[in-house]
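Workshop exercise sheet. Pairs work together: one partner reads the sequence aloud, the other fills in the structure field after running the prediction. Swap roles for the next sheet.
Pair: D.N. / O.F.
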Amino acid sequence: MYAFLISAYTQTVISTKSIPQLYDTLEIQTDKLPDKLRYDLNGKGMFWDFNALSAPYVYQLIVQPARFGEYASLFQKADAVINTIEGYEMYALLKPNEFSIAGYSKYDFMNLGLERPSFFDVPYPVKTVPLEYQDHQNGIYNLYMPITNDDIPSEILKMLPYTPDSARYVMEINRKSSVTADGKVDLHVDQYDAVKESISEVRTKKLEIKSQSIPWQDVSELFSGSNLFSKDSLRKEVFWSNKTKVPVAELFLDPITEEINQANFTSHPFLTNSIKLKTLKQDIFAYPNPTLGKIRFNLINLPSGFYDVQIINLLGMKVWEEKYYVSQSKTVKLNVSHLRKGTYFYRLQNEQGKTISTKRLIILKP
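Structure field:
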């Protein structure tokens, strides 16, 4: 919960040992309602206490050879494919000094329900080493999704200046990165020598078209009133260490308030109380479980809609119930200290009353 200067200072340099390799299993946990953490102090020899981060499960990302990907034939230069937490394929380049992204399949960055492959014009850098305090890296990266005219909403298609022979959606990413601090991260049962990389991005969505006689042309300005072609900002603080090939912590910030919206963090092999998942199905988790009273319900991988969460005693009686609107995932904090000590069940149902998942909950008393 604190960040402060530590007395003995040794500069941290992130090296090639932190670059993922083929057949690695990368383990990540996600806290969608993180408590306030002091991440904001910059400089040398800092100390960050992130022990408040918690999650009910560990998501396992397996670094497989690119040939195992569904769209491998389209990514000839990729070395690896990784199935992401969000359910799409990420095609990666694994160089001795850099882990970068060549493109994706099924990444619907336009939110139109499209499951098309998309390609970076220049590989998007996730991590470049060596990386140390006061390093910086800026760049512009365009992610192209080739489409057909049928993939363009009809109200936009009919307003185009001509019927295109080719079309593509584009997400232009203007990325600025600087290493603003180094020091130690205290996370659960370990401490990590780390650097903090501050990343800001402006993401602009576009529609480009062309014909046989007209080169690629950005027509997004014709639809300035549409939310489809918008600018979004991303802010995050990433803590890298040589001890782990994923970030020790990756904090996603509100671009305006700078509050933490979500925290991804590394899993430690000594911690065995978390469920390990390779794929995410529609589900609900309660943690900590057993609980002394304060719990979180983590609802994951759900189509947009209303869902009913219930706590039921051993006699089958509902002792608590609440409805929530969920789009993909949601985390809910709850205090159940008013319930008697013992065994209960918690249940997730959709709008039609169909039960998606039922699990056991144990309530203890101090």
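Discussion prompt: The chain has one helix and 24 strands. What would you look at next?
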